[in-house]
Amino acid sequence: MTANDNLRRRQKQALTPASANLFLHKNHMGNTPKTQKTPRMGRLGIGPLFASISICYFVATFFVTVRFAPGFRIYLLSDFNRCIISAIFIATGLIFYGFGVKSMLTAYNADKLCTTGPFAICRHPIYSAWMCFLVPGLAFWTNTLPSFTTPVIMYLLFKMIIVKEDRYLKERFGTEYLRYRKNTPEILPLGWIKRATKQAFP
Questions:
Q1: Structural domain of residue 70, as residue ranges?
Q2: CATH number of the domain where residue 132 is located
Q3: Contacts 24+ apart (CB under 8 A), 152-155
């Protein structure tokens, strides 16, 4: 065994397992391996889990309403006004949802952080479309108290499981996402509306 072999053996023993592998890799390949990017999350994100639980809850409220009707009906609005409000909510939600999905798919296919379209005014416009417009619109249409609890339950569920998606975006896009998260509201574009109003009426 030569002096160089003894030196190499002592250096290898002094290294941790991870750094020893890196040392051997550098000696064989001549360079340091690059850090891999965080594996991509599916384009649907937490959507399937969010949708399945929300649908189950909404169906449950429907059966409760049928079982105990008319005890849970609300009589504050006429049928005509209620249907108009329901149509406005649902139409707004469909537009918000459609443009949100289009923007998300374009950014996902380009492997970029989505910050355009509805994503420019809130970070989760697709979930927001359901929680703030579509489900409330359906609640106005069914006109029962249990159905109006569905958006609240959906929001609580959203806050519990969105952590996974938020962590993924932070790991994959780093400071770009942190800056976007700081400047863009999560669900309701209240901050965006406030800034836009100040710019329009300084």
A1: 47-200
A2: 1.20.120
A3: 153/54, 153/57, 154/50, 154/54, 154/57, 154/130, 155/131, 155/187
- Condensed to tens digits (0 to 9), the pLDDT of residues 32-57 reads 444 456 788 887 888 888 989 998 99
HSE (side-chain half, CA atoms, 13 Å) at 26 = 9
Q: Any idea how long the chain is?
A: 202
Q: What is the DSSP string of 116-147?
A: SGGGGT-S-HHHHIIIIIIHHHHHHHHTBHHH
Q: Cα–Cα distances in Å, from 8 out to 17, 22, 31?
A: 15, 14, 18
> What does the pLDDT look like over 94-114, one tens digit per residue?
999 999 999 999 999 999 999
pTM: 0.73
Question: Is residue 134 in a domain?
Answer: yes
